[in-house]
Amino acid sequence: MTLRERLHHQLHVGSWPNGKLTGLNILVVWTILAALGVGIIATEPIIRVPYQREILIAEFVFGMIFLIEYVARIYAAPEREGPGSDWGKRWRFMISPIGLIDLLVVVVSLAPFFVANAAVLRVIRLLRIVSILKFSRFSAAMREIAGALKERSYDLLVCATLAFVLVLLGAAGLYWIEGSIQPKAFGSIPRALWWAVITLTTVGYGDVYPVTTAGRLIGMLVAIGGVLLVALPTGIVAAAFSDAMQRRREAMKRALEEIETKTDL
Q1: pLDDT per residue over 61-116, tens digit each?
Q2: Which phi and psi (to 5°) does residue 155 adopt?
Q3: Which of 60-69, 124-133, 172-181 is the most confident on average?
Q4: What is the rounded average pLDDT for all residues in the chain?
Q5: CA–CA separation, 244 vs 264, rounded Å?
Q6: Helix (H, G, I), strand (E, B), or coil: what is residue 86?
Q7: Closest Cα to residue 7, out of 88, 136, 15?
Q8: pLDDT at 131 over 60
Q9: Cβ density class 81-106: b for 16+ within 10 Å, e for less
Q10: What pLDDT, on the 0 to 100 scale, is given for residue 38?
Q11: Is 208 helix (H, G, I), strand (E, B) or coil?
């Protein structure tokens, strides 16, 4: 096996039939997490000021690693199946979503040397993990879960509609009862919507709250309704997840049975 073939099997996720991540791709994932951790820590002045030199060195090392990986992926791109010349396949990889994400990660990793306050951009490195996992064995499970949620889309839509109606009724009720008492908070239905939303989600920051008995009664009803409505989609999503995993187990069982049958023959 040539060097280019080895790089292709190690770097390009999906080149292995089982869809598992290779050792080199696992190393890349850990490198991305380490780079992201350094970027997060670098936003803390207490750490950034005394260790500025060390942080810049780490950023430079991460940037070089991602640059080498990007060049290696371009070099190994011709090993992918399909028609086209070597440079044609390389160009298709460079302009593909994965190739553009790789290039963006390289640019972001080296941005601190050219752009001030580039710490926020480092979060984009997470896209690199997404691009790796997209073509791994996790993608099949995610497709099944997405399919199960799609089957429950009507149920989720009903829950969302009920939540919207409850929020709107709560805001309208507080506007009608306390609009003249607290015009800044409940002077209009749009203003009261803030209170209705945080009460429905049981967050309740406490910055806005009713002061009359009738207003508190409405607040109590909205809060209780919020608890009930949160429980509904949670059960729906849990059931969809359970169904998806059950179908996956059954599919794997059938595949194993087919393999055993072929082996016996």
Answers
A1: 888 888 888 898 888 888 777 787 888 888 988 888 777 877 877 777 776 666 65
A2: -60, -45
A3: 172-181
A4: 78
A5: 30
A6: helix
A7: 15
A8: no
A9: eeeeeeeebbeebbeeebbebbbebb
A10: 80
A11: coil
Find out whether 198 and 206 touch, Cβ atoms under 8 Å.
no
| Contact between residue 146 and residue 237 where contact means Cβ atoms under 8 Å apart | no
Cβ atoms of 189 and 172 closer than 8 Å: yes
Q: How many CA atoms lie within 13 A of 18 on its CB side?
A: 3
CB 132 within 8 A of CB 29: yes
Separation between Cα atoms, residue 86 and residue 103, nearest integer Å = 19
**pLDDT grade for 258, boundaries at 50, 70 and 90:** confident
| pLDDT over 80 at 230, yes or no | no
Nearest to 39 by CA among 119, 132, 147: 119
Whether the per-residue pLDDT at 24 is higher than 50: the answer is yes
For residue 144, which of 250, 263, 16, 32 has the smallest C-alpha distance? 250
Who's near 193: CB < 8 A, 6+ residues apart? 167, 168, 171
Q: Give the pLDDT confidence score for residue 119 in this predicted structure.
A: 52
Report in angstroms the alpha-carbon separations of 27 from 24, 51, 52, 124, 210: 5, 25, 26, 18, 55
DSSP label at 77? G
The 3-state secondary structure of 35-65, one letter per residue = HHHHHHHCCCHHHHCCCHHHHHHHHHHHHHH
* Residue pair 196/170 in contact by the 8 Å Cβ criterion: yes
